[in-house]
Design goal:
309 residues, alpha/beta, 10-stranded mixed sheet, two-stranded antiparallel sheet, 12 strands, 46% helix, 22% strand, globular
């Protein structure tokens, strides 16, 4: 899927974006892909710039945009040189518009099969300010998105920017939806001779003992036991890669992130619904929360994309 393809790399030239850059280069080297660096001049942010407490005149606004475009182009030339030094082909794109919309448009325009981008992983007000673009891209992208943040567990070797992936975690809810993304996780494990961990977090619903006392006692263990059977069945069906199974009880995104950190997972491959509105609230939030809190890179995949790496 990624081999001899195009990889889109959005950047704002920040430390966070530069950290994600090495992942993009390493992926391009591994799969013989071409990098497409993208920088978006945020039209809405520029519209709010004031000079001496007055809105900028149209001519001043154009001059500012031209100056920022020139600066971005200069920074892009440096990134191109870094790619050249690693033997990776690259192209640059400096555009004006809404960051999320332009990133998604460029992914389609360049026929990219992967987006590699930084996420700050903040919470509260800072998360709303800095983290929204990455999360919107994760939610809406038709192609897989590799989200990385600093600091985190790395799977890129510093001395030669090669990939070293030993443990790949695949969270599942046993639905046909998530099953469609499993081939992608298996393919990644096979590519790097890594161990694939089939993971399920059992979220036990709250049952009031005074209403149904038997259910309050038995529901949790019963669900956990059923989950273990289903995970084992999935593991038994996989024969071409090393595979392990794990079941935890608790909130899904927290258990996924905790297990990944404690057991040295290098990469989490998680399906995302890509829905919005109420459907997003009900079904799509786990993947985005994992992206936000996990201490290792996360590859989110729309199952309809499917396939192998």
């Amino acid at each position: 899927m990624f081999r001899n393809s195009n990889i889109l790399v959005p950047t704002d030239f920040s430390t966070y974006a530069n950290y994600a850059l090495k992942y993009a280069i390493a992926m391009a080297k591994q799969f013989g892909a071409t990098l497409h660096y993208a920088h978006v001049l945020d039209r809405s942010a520029l519209a709010g710039v004031r000079g001496n407490e007055m809105w900028l005149a149209e001519s001043e606004s154009h001059a500012l945009i031209d100056s920022m475009r020139e600066h971005a182009t200069s920074r892009m030339a440096h990134l191109t040189q870094i790619a050249d030094d690693e033997g990776v082909k690259s192209e640059t794109h400096v555009v004006l518009g809404n960051p999320t919309e332009e990133i998604l448009r460029l992914a389609e325009q360049t026929d990219s099969t992967l987006i590699v981008m930084a996420t700050h992983g903040r919470s509260g007000v800072e998360h709303l300010v800095f983290g929204s673009v990455a999360e919107k891209v994760v939610r809406q992208s038709a192609v897989p998105v590799l989200s990385v943040k600093h600091p985190e567990r790395e799977f890129v070797k510093e001395y030669d920017l090669s990939l070293e992936i030993k443990r790949v975690l695949f969270p599942t809810d046993f639905s046909p939806f998530s099953d469609k993304a499993l081939p992608f996780a298996k393919s990644f494990a096979k590519e790097f001779d890594a161990t694939l961990i089939i993971f399920h977090a059992t979220e036990v619903p709250i049952v009031l003992p005074e209403v149904v006392p038997d259910s309050a006692v038995l529901l949790g263990p019963q669900l956990e036991d059923e989950s273990r059977q289903l995970v084992q069945k999935m593991c038994d069906s996989i024969s071409d890669v090393k595979v392990e199974g794990e079941v935890r009880v608790g909130t899904a995104f927290r258990e996924i992130a905790s297990y990944a950190e404690k057991t040295g997972v290098d990469l989490i491959v998680v399906p995302t619904h890509g829905r919005s509105g109420l459907s997003h609230v009900l079904f799509g939030s786990v993947a985005e929360k994992v992206v936000r809190v996990a201490r290792c890179p996360v590859l989110t995949i729309r199952p309809e994309y499917g396939g192998e790496v």
